[in-house]
Amino acid sequence: MFCRDCGNKLTLRFKENEGLVPYCENCGKYKFPFFPVAVSMVVVNRAENEILLAKHFGDEDFKLFAGYIKKGENAEKAIPRELKEETGLSAVKWKYLGSRYHEEKDILMLGFLVVAENGAISLNEEIEEARWCTPEIAKELILKNSTAEFFLGAGYTELGKKK
Question: Is 62 found in the same domain as 28?
Fold first, then answer.
């Protein structure tokens, strides 16, 4: 582990109320680790009765649409940007569902229920297939015990509250 400011090797040092935290002797400061943040989107149509799932090239499982939040960007900007980049669809509105640490990729995922404008889907080079399906079918297609399943469940609960 190295300091992102000066490049010096970090050591672990005890900090009151924090425990062991990386410390840079050269800068004389604690350097709390950081990791990427991304949005995970349960994308629904305007009628809110279908969910759009994605299958990436080389992947067998369907997933939710997701993307990294870029430096200087907030989640509210990342949602419409990522949806447009991956599908060509516009995000009409969204609601925060919660967050979850995704250990597999060392990412903090922020989950959102996103209503997409109806229209033709134009997939980018990352996505092999996109499929509109009922919430019940989406639950069958999503990988069990995954972050996607966690957010799909939260989105499904939110959709149920609107009925």
Answer: no
